[in-house]
Amino acid sequence: MSQARLAPGVAPGRLTPAELAANFVDVAPPLDGHEARVAADRCYFCHDAPCITACPTSIDIPLFIRQIATGTPDAAAMTILHANILGGMCARVCPTENLCEGACVRMDAEGQPVEIGALQRFATDGMLDQPHPFMRAAPTGKRIAVVGAGPAGLSAAHRLAAKGHDVVMFDARPKPGGLNEYGIASYKAVDGFAQAEVDWLLGIGGIDLCMGQALGRDITLTQLQADYDAVFLGMGLAGVNALGAEGEDRHHVTDAISFIRDLRQASDLTALPVGRDVVVIGGGMTAVDAAVQARLLGAENVTIVYRRDQSQMGASRHEQDHATASGVRIICNAAPVTVHGNGAVVEVEFAYTAQGPDGLRLTDDRFRLKADQLFRAIGQRLDGAPDAVALSGGKIAVSGPGRTSVAGVWAGGDCAAGGDDLTVTAVAQGRDAAEDIDAALTGRSIEIPG
């Protein structure tokens, strides 16, 4: 074992380049043609398929699987992409075990669903190497501003561009993609897939990018309303919640999203520092992604601590099992009370929690975990929302297909109230808002969902 691997504190180079390359390979390698046909043959092609109902974008799953089974994967891809333009990324990051695959009738009979996510990836991956298949309608002369180049914004922009509108996308970051680019584990989307999918999506034309432009800092809603015929807000959640624990301002206490972002953007993983003893606070997908990647970077001990019961964790059971299989320990029913250290974190003190009539409470039963790096993964918040837009529960209030309290302004994705913070839900909300924007600008009628 190398000395670098045992270095105290937060240090780079705990693993060799070869070890890191092996650790960060595709977590779910793609199906080949034979595997895809075998997997497709397991589908019952249900007429009233519950998998369609369970998909937030309502992809016709039996149809695209039948198209794979009959040797027409390109047709399958078009079936998927008509409903979900980011079908490739969703195939990689969706909690399918809780959505389409969880609803698959094969689960009742065999406990093993059709591999819908893997089949969706098989179909859509081949499309990225081809010219963009969607054509723009005749120009309408209308211009729409989309704030946020994440899944919701990209979905809205593509649908609007397809209808002949001109779209300008604004995003605070240097690259488009949102959480697909900056916020998911790198082993879920290898080889720059997030940017490749964005580049392919932009191939429809009619979409201009203005990167490094933050709402409230570089642009205002009032400006956008004056310059554009409609505005879609899909800027996600930029703020990170605090622990509320004494000493959380110590060095090497940071948010998990920043850690994942830095890892995703790193050109040399050997230069990325990680602790020897890492603690992650939270129970969602972000907590799991941060914890697993800390292990893959060479952290010796990684522990996720969640304040409630394991059954209430936001991360799916599949993600939890992946974490423990990767060597991550999960402790539930505990909350941080004090971050100990002299300048930098050394230990984190926790109190066990108990559910009472007034909600969750801290008990007097305490324990400590050694930690030279502490990640917060306890949720994000909306920062910089325009004053004119009404909020609900700290997010932008919406009705119907993303209509805000301000005429001519729509919203969707994580920044909008009522969602579940999933990529696939954001895609659906962006798509549906785009349909409503088009209807408002052209005078046609649509059926409003919900």
Write out the CATH superfamily name of the largest domain.
Answer: FAD/NAD(P)-binding domain
> What is the count of β-strands?
19
- The secondary-structure class comes to alpha/beta
Say what the CATH topology of the largest domain is. Answer: FAD/NAD(P)-binding domain
State the name of the first-level CATH class of the largest domain: Alpha Beta
**Average pLDDT reading:** 95
Using only CA atoms, what is the Rg?
23 Å
CATH architecture of the largest domain: 3-Layer(bba) Sandwich
Helix count from the secondary structure assignment: 17
Gap between N and C termini? 58 Å
Fraction of helical residues = 25-40%
SSE arrangement:
Blueprint: E1 10-11, H1 17-23, H2 33-40, H3 50-54, H4 61-69, H5 73-83, H6 87-93, H7 100-103, H8 106-110, H9 116-125, E2 143-147, H10 151-162, E3 166-171, H11 179-182, H12 193-202, E4 207-211, H13 221-227, E5 230-233, E6 239-240, E7 253-255, H14 256-265, E8 274-275, E9 277-281, H15 285-296, E10 301-306, H16 317-325, E11 328-332, E12 334-342, E13 344-356, E14 359-370, E15 373-376, E16 380-381, E17 391-392, E18 395-396, E19 409-411, H17 423-442
Parallel strand pairs: 2-3, 2-5, 3-4, 5-19, 7-15, 9-10, 9-15, 10-11
Antiparallel strand pairs: 1-8, 6-16, 12-13, 13-14, 17-18
